[in-house]
TrEMBL record:
<feature type="compositionally biased region" description="Basic and acidic residues">
    <location>
        <begin position="68"/>
        <end position="85"/>
    </location>
</feature>
<dbReference type="InterPro" id="IPR005135">
    <property type="entry name" value="Endo/exonuclease/phosphatase"/>
</dbReference>
<dbReference type="InterPro" id="IPR036691">
    <property type="entry name" value="Endo/exonu/phosph_ase_sf"/>
</dbReference>
<feature type="domain" description="Endonuclease/exonuclease/phosphatase">
    <location>
        <begin position="124"/>
        <end position="336"/>
    </location>
</feature>
<protein>
    <recommendedName>
        <fullName>Endonuclease/exonuclease/phosphatase domain-containing protein</fullName>
    </recommendedName>
</protein>
<feature type="compositionally biased region" description="Acidic residues">
    <location>
        <begin position="55"/>
        <end position="67"/>
    </location>
</feature>
<feature type="region of interest" description="Disordered">
    <location>
        <begin position="367"/>
        <end position="386"/>
    </location>
</feature>
<feature type="compositionally biased region" description="Basic and acidic residues">
    <location>
        <begin position="376"/>
        <end position="386"/>
    </location>
</feature>
<feature type="region of interest" description="Disordered">
    <location>
        <begin position="33"/>
        <end position="109"/>
    </location>
</feature>
<dbReference type="GO" id="GO:0003824">
    <property type="term" value="F:catalytic activity"/>
</dbReference>
<dbReference type="Pfam" id="PF03372">
    <property type="entry name" value="Exo_endo_phos"/>
</dbReference>
Amino acid sequence: MKWNLRAVDWVAGVAMAGVVAAGGGLALGAFGNEGPPPVEPAVESDLEAGTVTSEDFEGETEEDDEALPEKEKEPKRRPGKKDQEQPEGTKIVGERPGGSPIVFPGDPVPPEPVAQPVEFVISSFNVLGSTHTANGSRSRFASGPVRARNVAPLLQRHGVEIVGFQELQNNQRAVFQSMAGDRYALFPGASMSERESVNSIAWDVTRWEAVDSRVVDIPYFGGNIRKMPIVRLQNRSNDAQIWVGNFHNPADAQGPAERWRDRATQIEIQLANDLIEADGIPVLFTGDFNEREEVFCSIVGSTPLESANGGTNDGGACRPPSPARIDWIFGSSVTWLSYLADESALVHRTTDHPMIVAHALLEPADGGAAQEAEDALGRTEEAQGE
């Protein structure tokens, strides 16, 4: 079978016109009202120039341009920006001459969450051990387990997340844990003897996670060593970490104990400085230090710790807060927002100490680094402006 080349050209033209009409919405045909040109019969000169048969189309497709003359092949497009990776969330809707893409923003890419400062409440709470009121020895107080029923409600009243207990004896701890449920974890709690567990630290497990825990040797009555706890806690909201230490320095109840208190204070000062130097994270101390102005001036004057209830010790001029109590909360690298010595009726029925409560602001884990970077940038800009 032979094909007339002009007829083939006409058919191709009709097909192309149909495509154009479909894409552009043309109302008229490709040739107006005149119709296609008449098909002329093939002449010998055409055949002599070259014949086209069906065999010539076998295996040939529209994409196969090897058989076409070089000038009729589709030119190769240079790779442009459209071929490059675009930021996530963008949409490429076309291309400018030269390969530059036309890009419109797509769905916005959500920013990385930024850790925020968190506020928390910490307490120092001497609950008056059971042995101090056994057998009605102090008439205004109920037994230790009965008084311990007030501990969990008092923590709830103030929203306490971290508390350093003193004198929390085993039968009192059992009552507290039965009422608080799984809300608070304790160290050392039941993991050590009652001798050590009376000074347990408790923390709200929905807000904090313990990542390290240790004990430090502190001289007590007669210089006998008591192991007292320090716990490294990580905040579940912004991943910031803090060290919390809880202490009970000896009173004079069993003879003069000044030398042992002084020794205990020096150990606590060294501990604070060592932890800050090693880890660079906030250090907080709670406790019944059994001293007022003296322990304040020693700790604030020799460490970066500050008292939650104010006072200063700058250049050797010590100005303790007023009133100064024997129960303290100290801390470094936190902002103290409020302080309360709760001496309400419920506390008065529970213990012979006030419940010390402080509200603090804690920066995110990288807050210090971010501040250093900001300060460095400011110094650079100042230098460039000179």
